[in-house]
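Tokens for chain A. Residues wanted.
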């Protein structure tokens, strides 16, 4: 019989008969690749590669597909000629649950129409409902299944994988469920989605599963995967998640519930999330946790959900309210928080879980109460009111707590308003008074270092907000220390100390990135910038933030050995579409009273100067020490503008009324249109400097009508020398420090002289007579060229012309002012003696007291 049955089910006629029986059971077209059957010990029919077609009203995809369907058949039914299923096993099934736009599901064709009892409101089966062979099914077992969902013609990205469990008929019309599955979402990698389990009892299909009592749980899930399943992407939140829910419909629940309606489901949900933190931060023992409890009614038929008991709790805070949802016709969501009590310590835990660098020693003692109403989807705030009686915040580095005064807020004309409230910041423990900052008295140190009034305004319609901070601080460094304790490091490469008064606004909206506006005044302050060896002393400075720029007005600033006035401005450049933000350049108009190049070296030179041992034994230490790399802060600065200096000193050169157009970009300084007054004349030119590991300098300039006697090298001869000089020159230098710059100095130039006069010495007569002669030497004009190299000044040739003859001077002068010059004269006139017409004069020794000797020219021999 077994062999006969096995062969029989493979015939076409029996194959068609069995397929018709399955189609009658499923109510849909069925396609089976092959059948197999056995009679002993129990009759069983196996269908391999089974596909159950979909109702055309819900599309043309399959309804159910499985690798194998094993159906246990009843002997009694077979003997009566009926096809009655006992236990049905599905291996690797795939089910598509479809919902039409009118709200009908494809499962409803399996569910006969039901009636509602007018006396009890309980759903009862319709008397004329026709029983089908599927109703004789005793048990359904599922192994490694999958459930997909479809709305209209679009298949959703959400599904259940690895569905395991059973559905068993425990009594006529009563079914017991025990199913487990793993949630899944297409296109989103999941690591720990957890396991969803559904247990409980439901009624038969003829009563639309009512009455029912279900218990659901979702365990062993990560919070990141929960957000990935809901939102389809990673929101950067980590933690663990678990939830339990119960749902009950029909029967006693429907009859005993207040205001119960036909089709209502009574539910209760408890969800918990713990160890909540940002994805790139480590877990902490104080990571926040939150629990949500909701209980109410859900009616899927009319698309309403009402939770009259909603509680949200954390470690020290809680909120209670109600929520209602309507999903049919015009969808709407309403959430009302009747009472909320929030501890600032909980807020601090949440802040610390998502912000790195927050101090471990911050303690908060403040309590907030309030109520609010949210509507729409996404939820938007419609009504709110909250208040706090004040509190105390213990901050590390401060001897006394920060005091927050009473505050309150709410919604006025669609605007969230927090009325001004005061903050008192105590003085820090470590208070320094560098530069010109006056020391704080004992009475002042016991008082608050800063007092501020804060207010908040947010327009719900325009989606624009404004946070206002108004106050003053006797020690602005305490404000930065306070921000640093909360993980907000404002000072990056700079340090500011001193007094400040400000009225600032932090503005943002949906169209623009957040930005500051307002003003701040600094006085008796110092600013230390990375890359500068000395702090900048601020006597008076005003900073203004506007919509288009930020501007700094310098009342009096001490820097680089000078007092500065003027202004600096920086425009705001919005971020690009690729998320890149260009650093906007600075523009300035600065004026200094006196600037000395020596001071620039002290301010900008390397911090680590070579020690005396390194200077004595450089080979033993591998040569000169490597200079520090340029400061990152200075390297990013781009600035241009006009520069004015009343007096600029470069070694022994003093320039008056210095004017230039300056540009600084990536540690490269350029000075164009340079103008200055020097020794009664005028200097024009350009300067380029590159502040790299080995700084390089390049200068080109011209000078007109400079008084020779006023130059620093000839000032000692000012009573005996007169004349004007003009010309041009080019200089190159590299290195750090005075010695390195002079050692690498190279250059060349041209010089032109006019109306030169030397009093007390008749140089032409002396050379013509061959003996010293007092008087005055005059030259109408002169010209020559020179070079700078090897630490000295080389005069290639300076020719002075007059009516009595020419005078030629050449040689060198070192930077240590040692001379080695040779003068040659060709004289004419009545005093000239033919045998002594050409004579040489040798000048040597210190420039202040040179030695001069006369040498008689020798007759040139043939071939010389």
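Reply:
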């Amino acid at each position: 019989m077994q062999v006969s049955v096995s062969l029989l089910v493979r015939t076409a006629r029996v194959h068609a008969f069995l397929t018709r029986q399955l189609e009658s059971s499923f109510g849909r077209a069925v396609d089976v690749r092959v059948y197999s059957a056995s009679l002993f010990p129990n009759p069983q029919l196996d269908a391999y590669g089974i596909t159950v077609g979909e109702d055309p009203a819900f599309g043309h995809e399959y309804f159910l597909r499985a690798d194998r369907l094993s159906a246990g058949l009843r002997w009694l039914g077979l003997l009566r000629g009926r096809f009655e299923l006992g236990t049905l096993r599905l291996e690797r099934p795939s089910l598509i649950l479809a919902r039409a736009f009118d709200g009908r599901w494809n499962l409803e064709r399996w569910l006969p129409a039901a009636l509602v009892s007018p006396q009890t409101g309980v759903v009862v089966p319709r008397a004329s409902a026709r029983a089908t062979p599927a109703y004789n099914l005793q048990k359904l077992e599922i192994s490694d299944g999958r459930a997909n969902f479809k709305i209209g013609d679009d298949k959703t990205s959400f599904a259940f994988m690895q569905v395991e469990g059973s559905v068993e008929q425990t009594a006529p019309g009563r079914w017991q469920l025990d199913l487990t599955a793993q949630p899944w979402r297409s296109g989103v990698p999941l690591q720990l989605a957890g396991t969803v389990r559904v247990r409980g009892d439901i009624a038969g299909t003829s009563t639309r599963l009512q009455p029912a009592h279900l218990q659901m749980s979702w365990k062993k899930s990560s919070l990141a995967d929960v957000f990935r399943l809901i939102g389809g992407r990673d929101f950067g939140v980590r933690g663990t998640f678990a939830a339990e829910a119960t749902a009950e419909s029909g029967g006693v629940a429907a009859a005993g519930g207040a205001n119960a309606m036909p089709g209502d489901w009574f539910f209760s949900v408890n969800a918990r999330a713990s160890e909540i933190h940002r994805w790139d931060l480590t877990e902490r023992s104080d990571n926040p946790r939150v629990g949500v409890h909701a209980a109410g009614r859900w009616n899927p038929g009319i698309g309403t959900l009402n939770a009259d008991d909603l509680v949200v709790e954390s470690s020290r805070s809680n909120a209670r309210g109600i929520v209602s949802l309507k999903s049919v016709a015009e969808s709407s969501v309403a959430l009302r928080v009747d009472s909320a009590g929030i501890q600032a310590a909980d807020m601090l835990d949440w802040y610390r879980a998502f912000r790195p660098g927050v101090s471990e020693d911050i303690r908060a003692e403040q309590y907030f109460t309030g109520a609010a109403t949210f509507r729409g989807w996404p939820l938007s705030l419609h009504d709110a009111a909250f208040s706090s009686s004040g509190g105390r915040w213990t901050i590390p580095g401060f001897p006394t707590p920060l005091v927050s005064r009473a505050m309150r807020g709410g919604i006025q004309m669609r605007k969230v308003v927090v009325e001004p409230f005061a903050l008192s910041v105590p003085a820090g423990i470590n208070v320094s008074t560098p530069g010109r900052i006056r020391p704080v008295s004992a009475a002042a140190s016991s008082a608050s270092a800063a007092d501020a009034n804060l207010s908040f305004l947010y327009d719900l319609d325009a989606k624009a907000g404004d946070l206002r901070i108004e106050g003053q601080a006797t020690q602005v460094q305490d404000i930065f220390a306070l921000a640093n304790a909360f993980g907000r490091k404002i000072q990056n490469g700079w340090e500011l100390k001193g007094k400040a008064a400000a009225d600032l606004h932090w503005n943002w909206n949906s169209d623009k990135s957040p930005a500051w506006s307002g003003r701040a005044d600094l006085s008796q302050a110092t600013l230390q910038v990375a890359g500068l060896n000395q702090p900048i002393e601020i006597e008076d400075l005003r900073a203004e933030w506007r919509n288009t720029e930020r501007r700094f007005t310098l009342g009096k600033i001490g820097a680089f050995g000078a007092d500065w006035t003027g202004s600096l401005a920086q425009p705001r450049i919005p971020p690009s579409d690729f998320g890149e933000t260009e650093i906007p350049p600075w523009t300035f108009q600065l004026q200094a009273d006196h600037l000395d190049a020596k001071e620039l070296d002290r301010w900008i030179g390397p911090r680590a100067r070579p020690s005396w041992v390194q200077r004595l034994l450089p080979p033993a230490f591998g040569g000169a020490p490597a200079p520090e790399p340029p400061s990152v802060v200075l390297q990013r600065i781009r600035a241009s503008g006009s520069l004015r200096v009343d007096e600029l000193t470069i070694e022994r050169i003093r320039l008056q009324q210095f004017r230039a157009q300056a540009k600084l970009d990536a540690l490269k300084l350029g000075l164009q249109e340079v103008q200055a007054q020097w020794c009664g004349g005028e200097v024009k030119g350009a300067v380029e400097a590159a502040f790299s590991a080995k700084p390089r300098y390049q200068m080109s300039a011209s000078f007109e009508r400079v008084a020779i006697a006023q130059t620093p090298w000839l000032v000692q001869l000012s009573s005996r020398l007169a004349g004007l000089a003009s010309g041009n020159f080019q200089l190159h230098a590299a290195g750090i420090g005075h010695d390195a710059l002079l050692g690498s100095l190279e250059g060349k130039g041209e010089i032109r002289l006019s109306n030169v006069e030397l009093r007390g010495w008749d140089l032409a007569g002396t050379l013509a007579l061959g003996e010293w002669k007092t008087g005055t030497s005059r030259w109408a004009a002169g010209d020559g060229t020179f070079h700078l190299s090897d630490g000295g000044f080389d005069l290639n040739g300076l020719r002075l012309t007059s009516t009595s003859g020419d005078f030629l001077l050449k040689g060198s002068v070192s930077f240590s002012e040692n001379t080695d010059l040779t003068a040659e004269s060709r004289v004419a006139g009545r005093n000239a003696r033919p045998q002594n017409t050409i004579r040489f004069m040798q000048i040597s020794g210190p420039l202040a007291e040179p030695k001069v000797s006369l040498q008689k020219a020798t007759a040139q021999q043939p071939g010389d």
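The chain has 13 helices and 44 strands. Residues 600 and 701 are 21 Å apart (CA to CA).
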